[in-house]
Amino acid sequence: MFRRNALKTLAALGCVAALAACSKPQASFQGTDVTGLEYAQNFHLTDHNGSERSLKDFAGKVVVIFFGYTQCPDVCPTSMQEMAQVKAALGADGERLQGLFITVDPERDTPEVLKAYMANFDPGFLALRGTPEQLEAVAKEFKVFFRKVDGQTPTSYTMDHSAGSYVYDTQGQLRVYERYGAGPQALEADVKTLLAEAK
Hints:
eight-stranded mixed beta sheet
Protein backbone atom coordinates (compact mmCIF):
# COMPACT_ATOMS: atom_id res chain seq x y z
CA MET A 1 0.00 0.00 0.00
CA PHE A 2 2.75 2.41 1.05
CA ARG A 3 4.83 1.47 -2.00
CA ARG A 4 1.85 2.05 -4.33
CA ASN A 5 1.17 5.49 -2.82
CA ALA A 6 4.85 6.39 -3.02
CA LEU A 7 4.90 5.46 -6.71
CA LYS A 8 1.77 7.56 -7.34
CA THR A 9 3.39 10.53 -5.58
CA LEU A 10 6.59 10.16 -7.61
CA ALA A 11 4.57 9.95 -10.82
CA ALA A 12 2.62 13.09 -9.91
CA LEU A 13 5.82 14.95 -9.08
CA GLY A 14 7.28 13.84 -12.40
CA CYS A 15 4.30 15.28 -14.26
CA VAL A 16 4.61 18.58 -12.39
CA ALA A 17 8.32 18.77 -13.17
CA ALA A 18 7.69 18.02 -16.83
CA LEU A 19 5.04 20.73 -17.05
CA ALA A 20 7.31 23.24 -15.32
CA ALA A 21 10.12 22.44 -17.73
CA CYS A 22 7.87 22.88 -20.77
CA SER A 23 6.06 26.04 -19.68
CA LYS A 24 7.43 29.37 -20.95
CA PRO A 25 8.05 32.27 -18.58
CA GLN A 26 5.55 35.10 -18.86
CA ALA A 27 6.80 37.75 -21.30
CA SER A 28 7.50 41.19 -19.85
CA PHE A 29 6.64 44.17 -22.05
CA GLN A 30 7.42 47.88 -21.99
CA GLY A 31 3.97 48.65 -23.42
CA THR A 32 0.62 47.52 -22.05
CA ASP A 33 0.29 43.73 -22.06
CA VAL A 34 -3.05 42.93 -23.72
CA THR A 35 -2.41 39.23 -24.27
CA GLY A 36 -5.66 37.29 -24.36
CA LEU A 37 -7.99 40.26 -24.79
CA GLU A 38 -10.65 39.53 -27.38
CA TYR A 39 -10.64 42.57 -29.63
CA ALA A 40 -8.55 43.80 -32.58
CA GLN A 41 -8.57 40.20 -33.84
CA ASN A 42 -8.48 40.88 -37.58
CA PHE A 43 -9.22 43.21 -40.47
CA HIS A 44 -10.07 42.93 -44.17
CA LEU A 45 -8.83 45.97 -46.07
CA THR A 46 -7.03 46.86 -49.30
CA ASP A 47 -3.39 47.88 -49.31
CA HIS A 48 -1.95 50.74 -51.37
CA ASN A 49 -0.98 48.26 -54.10
CA GLY A 50 -4.58 47.09 -54.52
CA SER A 51 -4.22 43.73 -52.72
CA GLU A 52 -6.79 42.51 -50.19
CA ARG A 53 -5.14 42.04 -46.81
CA SER A 54 -5.82 40.46 -43.42
CA LEU A 55 -3.61 39.53 -40.45
CA LYS A 56 -2.98 35.99 -41.70
CA ASP A 57 -1.01 37.44 -44.63
CA PHE A 58 1.77 38.35 -42.22
CA ALA A 59 2.17 35.04 -40.37
CA GLY A 60 5.70 34.62 -39.07
CA LYS A 61 6.20 38.36 -38.57
CA VAL A 62 5.65 40.70 -35.67
CA VAL A 63 2.99 43.13 -36.91
CA VAL A 64 2.59 46.72 -35.70
CA ILE A 65 -0.64 48.52 -36.67
CA PHE A 66 -1.17 52.27 -36.40
CA PHE A 67 -4.34 54.21 -37.31
CA GLY A 68 -3.88 57.69 -38.77
CA TYR A 69 -4.07 59.84 -41.88
CA THR A 70 -1.50 61.28 -44.26
CA GLN A 71 -2.26 64.96 -43.58
CA CYS A 72 -1.75 64.50 -39.84
CA PRO A 73 0.81 67.12 -38.80
CA ASP A 74 2.64 65.37 -35.97
CA VAL A 75 1.40 62.20 -34.27
CA CYS A 76 1.15 60.04 -37.39
CA PRO A 77 4.50 60.83 -39.02
CA THR A 78 6.23 60.58 -35.63
CA SER A 79 4.72 57.14 -34.98
CA MET A 80 5.60 55.84 -38.44
CA GLN A 81 9.14 57.25 -38.23
CA GLU A 82 9.66 55.52 -34.89
CA MET A 83 8.42 52.26 -36.41
CA ALA A 84 10.96 52.67 -39.23
CA GLN A 85 13.71 53.38 -36.68
CA VAL A 86 12.85 50.18 -34.84
CA LYS A 87 12.98 48.14 -38.06
CA ALA A 88 16.42 49.59 -38.89
CA ALA A 89 17.69 48.96 -35.34
CA LEU A 90 16.72 45.29 -35.58
CA GLY A 91 19.24 44.69 -38.36
CA ALA A 92 18.59 41.40 -40.16
CA ASP A 93 15.59 40.75 -37.90
CA GLY A 94 13.99 43.89 -39.31
CA GLU A 95 12.59 41.79 -42.13
CA ARG A 96 10.47 40.02 -39.52
CA LEU A 97 8.70 43.28 -38.58
CA GLN A 98 5.67 44.38 -40.63
CA GLY A 99 4.44 47.93 -40.23
CA LEU A 100 0.82 48.63 -41.19
CA PHE A 101 -0.84 52.06 -41.42
CA ILE A 102 -4.66 52.09 -41.52
CA THR A 103 -6.06 55.39 -42.74
CA VAL A 104 -9.02 56.96 -40.97
CA ASP A 105 -9.35 59.39 -43.91
CA PRO A 106 -10.06 57.26 -47.01
CA GLU A 107 -11.72 60.27 -48.65
CA ARG A 108 -8.38 62.02 -49.21
CA ASP A 109 -6.00 59.08 -48.70
CA THR A 110 -6.17 57.47 -52.12
CA PRO A 111 -3.93 54.48 -52.92
CA GLU A 112 -1.51 56.81 -54.73
CA VAL A 113 -1.31 59.19 -51.77
CA LEU A 114 -0.81 56.30 -49.34
CA LYS A 115 1.92 54.73 -51.46
CA ALA A 116 3.85 58.01 -51.56
CA TYR A 117 3.36 58.45 -47.81
CA MET A 118 4.75 55.01 -46.99
CA ALA A 119 7.81 55.73 -49.13
CA ASN A 120 8.76 58.37 -46.55
CA PHE A 121 9.25 55.69 -43.91
CA ASP A 122 10.01 52.20 -45.19
CA PRO A 123 9.33 50.56 -48.56
CA GLY A 124 8.18 47.37 -46.82
CA PHE A 125 5.47 49.09 -44.78
CA LEU A 126 1.92 48.93 -46.10
CA ALA A 127 -0.94 51.41 -45.91
CA LEU A 128 -4.48 50.03 -45.77
CA ARG A 129 -7.79 51.63 -46.61
CA GLY A 130 -11.42 50.61 -46.93
CA THR A 131 -14.87 51.94 -47.65
CA PRO A 132 -16.45 54.12 -44.96
CA GLU A 133 -18.46 51.05 -43.89
CA GLN A 134 -15.35 48.87 -43.67
CA LEU A 135 -13.53 51.55 -41.71
CA GLU A 136 -16.38 51.82 -39.21
CA ALA A 137 -16.32 48.04 -38.73
CA VAL A 138 -12.55 47.94 -38.24
CA ALA A 139 -12.64 50.90 -35.85
CA LYS A 140 -15.27 49.11 -33.79
CA GLU A 141 -13.23 45.90 -33.75
CA PHE A 142 -10.09 47.75 -32.67
CA LYS A 143 -11.88 50.14 -30.29
CA VAL A 144 -10.44 53.08 -32.23
CA PHE A 145 -11.94 56.56 -32.07
CA PHE A 146 -11.88 58.94 -35.04
CA ARG A 147 -13.83 62.05 -35.94
CA LYS A 148 -13.74 64.57 -38.75
CA VAL A 149 -13.11 68.17 -37.65
CA ASP A 150 -14.20 70.78 -40.20
CA GLY A 151 -11.63 73.29 -41.43
CA GLN A 152 -11.97 76.64 -43.20
CA THR A 153 -12.60 74.89 -46.53
CA PRO A 154 -14.29 71.57 -47.34
CA THR A 155 -10.92 69.89 -48.00
CA SER A 156 -8.92 71.41 -45.13
CA TYR A 157 -10.51 69.34 -42.38
CA THR A 158 -8.49 67.41 -39.82
CA MET A 159 -9.14 64.09 -38.13
CA ASP A 160 -9.20 63.53 -34.39
CA HIS A 161 -8.18 59.92 -33.76
CA SER A 162 -6.79 57.45 -31.25
CA ALA A 163 -2.99 57.45 -31.13
CA GLY A 164 -1.38 54.16 -30.23
CA SER A 165 0.02 51.04 -31.87
CA TYR A 166 -1.20 47.45 -31.74
CA VAL A 167 1.57 44.85 -31.67
CA TYR A 168 0.97 41.22 -32.72
CA ASP A 169 3.19 38.20 -32.26
CA THR A 170 4.31 35.95 -35.11
CA GLN A 171 1.16 33.82 -34.66
CA GLY A 172 -1.10 36.81 -35.31
CA GLN A 173 -2.16 37.21 -31.67
CA LEU A 174 -2.55 40.69 -30.17
CA ARG A 175 0.01 41.05 -27.39
CA VAL A 176 0.92 44.69 -26.70
CA TYR A 177 -0.59 48.15 -26.95
CA GLU A 178 2.05 50.87 -27.29
CA ARG A 179 0.87 54.31 -26.22
CA TYR A 180 1.86 57.32 -28.29
CA GLY A 181 4.87 59.07 -26.79
CA ALA A 182 6.46 55.95 -25.29
CA GLY A 183 9.33 56.28 -27.75
CA PRO A 184 11.00 53.84 -30.16
CA GLN A 185 13.03 52.13 -27.43
CA ALA A 186 9.88 50.69 -25.82
CA LEU A 187 8.59 49.40 -29.15
CA GLU A 188 11.98 47.95 -30.06
CA ALA A 189 12.22 46.10 -26.74
CA ASP A 190 8.76 44.60 -27.15
CA VAL A 191 9.34 43.56 -30.75
CA LYS A 192 12.59 41.88 -29.70
CA THR A 193 10.75 40.05 -26.91
CA LEU A 194 8.16 38.72 -29.36
CA LEU A 195 10.78 37.71 -31.92
CA ALA A 196 12.77 35.87 -29.24
CA GLU A 197 9.59 34.16 -28.09
CA ALA A 198 9.08 32.79 -31.61
CA LYS A 199 12.50 31.09 -31.74
